[in-house]
Amino acid sequence: MPELYLFPYSRVCFFCPMQSQSTPFPDLAQLRADTPGCYDHLFMNSAGASLMPTPVVSAMMAYLQQETQLGGYEVERLRSDQIGRFYDETARLLNTKPGHIAYAYSATHACNQVLSAIPFRPGDTILTTTNDYVSNQLAFLSIQQRLGIRLLRINDLPNGDLDLTHLDELIRTHRPVLVAITHIPTNSGLVLPAEDVGKLCRQHNVWYLLDAAQSVGQLPLDVAQIQPDFLIATGRKFLRGPRNTGFLYISDRVLEAGLAPLCIDRRAAGWTTPDTFTLQPNARRFEPQEISLLSVGLAEAIRYANDVSLEAITQQNQRLMHRLRAGLQQIDGLVLLDRGSQQSNLLTFHTPRQSLATLDAALRRERIIFTVQNAASALIDFQRKGIDWLIRLSPHYFNTLDEMNAVVDALDRSVH
Ligand SMILES: Cc1ncc(COP(=O)(O)O)c(C=O)c1O
Mind giving me the DSSP string for 282-332? Predict the structure, then answer.
C-alpha cells in the first residue's frame, strides 16, 4: 500500500468541477485515481511532460467529439463560455485579472511574442542568467546577431544562487532594456529569486520577463508580489495540461506603453481602416487566432491545479523531494548536481560509475520514466559542472513516498 497523505484543505472534488465547495479535499488516493498512468510506472517526468488528470482528457475528448459533429467553428461558438474560463482560471492561478492573460501555443511561442514586442535598437542591452532556458538564449543570440544588441549574463554566487548585487551593478552600469530570467531552469533544481529580481526591475524601471515554465503548477506564483512585466508558461509540465499549450501574463505597464507583438494575429487587433488597426485593449493583443480543444484542456488543467491548491501541492512536493534527495545522497558514486539555497522538484544527477546507455536501460527496466539531458540543453551549466549528460527526476504531488523509496532502491541497484 502506498503511504497516503491527506491534504489539509477542504476543496472541490476533482472528478466534478460543479460539486460544492464543502466537499472534503480528496486524499492522495483520489488524486491518483484521476491519474491512471501513475500505477504502471514510477513517473518522474513532470518537468518534461506530466500525466494529465482524467478531467483534462475528458474535457478535450468531449470537445473533439463535438467537433466531429459540428465542425470547429460551431463548437467554438457554442463553447465560448467554457473557452473563456481559461482566462479566469489562469488569473486565479497568478492572482491577477483575466485581462492580463493571453493564450499561447507554448512557452517559447509566448517568449517570442514578448521579444518581438520590445522595440530593441542597436546597442540596447538584455540581461539574462547563465541558466536561462535554451530557446530563450537562442532567441537573445539571434536578436543580438540581427539587431546588434548586447547580451550580458548575471553572475552566480559560489553556491549557485543568482548574484543580486551583480544584477544591481549591471542594471546601473548598462541601463538594460530587458532583464530576462528563468524561475526554475530546465536542467537543475535551482529556484531563482524571482521576487528580488522584480524589485530591482521596478526600482530601475526595466522590462522584466520571467520564464515560469517549470515553476507554474509547482509553486504558487503571485504576480502582485513578483511584479513581472511578462510571465511566460507552458501547459504540459507541472500544470499537467496538454502539449502545445502555454500562456502569457502581461502587466498594466506593458499595456499602457502600447507594446504588442510585431506580427499581429487577427484575434489581437481590429482592422479598422484599410491602413490602420486597433489593438485589443488587454493582453489578448498577444494571442494567436487559432484555438482548439487544447485551450480547453489547458483551462481544465489550471482549474484542477487551483482546486488542489498550489500551497498543498508545494507542501506535498517538499515531502517527496526531501525523501528522494536524502535517499539518493546515500548512494555511493551518484553525484547530485543541484545547487542554490532553494531547490525545487527537479533533481538532477550524474554518475561516473556507469555509461549513460547502461544506466538508461537499467532505469527503464525498473519502469522509471525520466529525462536524459545533454550539454546542448544548458551549455553553460554543463560546462561548469564538467559533465556531458545528466538524468533528471521530477516527481509531482500525485507520487508517493513509497515511490521515492522505490526510485532510490532502483538507482542503488543500477549504479552498482
Ligand atoms: C524553463 C523552461 N522554459 C521554457 C521551456 C519551453 O517550453 P515550451 O516547450 O512550451 O516552449 C521549457 C521546456 O522544457 C523550460 O524548461
Answer: SGGGG--S---HHHHHHHHHHHHHHHH-HHHHHHHHHHHHHHHHHHHHTST
Ligand 1, pocket-test mutation among 109, 191, 234, most atoms within 8 A of CB:
234
Q: Is the pLDDT of residue 8 over 60?
A: no
CA of 386 from ligand 1 middle (Å) equals 23
pLDDT at 168 over 60: yes
Other CB atoms within a 10 A radius of the CB of residue 81 amount to 7
DSSP secondary structure string, 70-95?
H-HHHHHHHTHHHHHHHHHHHHHHHT
- For 256-296, the pLDDT digits (tens) are 999 999 999 999 999 999 999 999 999 999 999 998 999 99
At 205, the amino acid letter reads N
pLDDT band, residue 26 (cuts 50/70/90): low
- Show the ligand 1 pocket: residues with CB < 6 angstroms: 106-108, 133, 135, 182, 185-186, 211, 213-214, 234, 246
Atom of ligand 1 nearest to the CA of 105: 10
Q: 247: closest CA among 308, 294, 202?
A: 294
Please compute the mean of the pLDDT values over residues 105-116 and round it to a whole number. 98
Instruction: Choose the residue to mutate in 211, 218, 230, 371 for probing ligand 1, maximizing ligand atoms within 8 Å of C-beta.
Output: 211
Q: Which domain holds residue 293?
A: 57-307
Q: Do 191 and 127 lie in a common domain?
A: yes
Output the domain CATH number for residue 257: 3.40.640.10
Q: How many domains does the chain have?
A: 2
Kindly report whether the global pTM for this prediction surpasses the value 0.90.
yes
pLDDT, position 359? 97
Instruction: Please tell me the distance from the alpha carbon of residue 270 to that of residue 272, in angstroms, as a whole number.
Output: 6
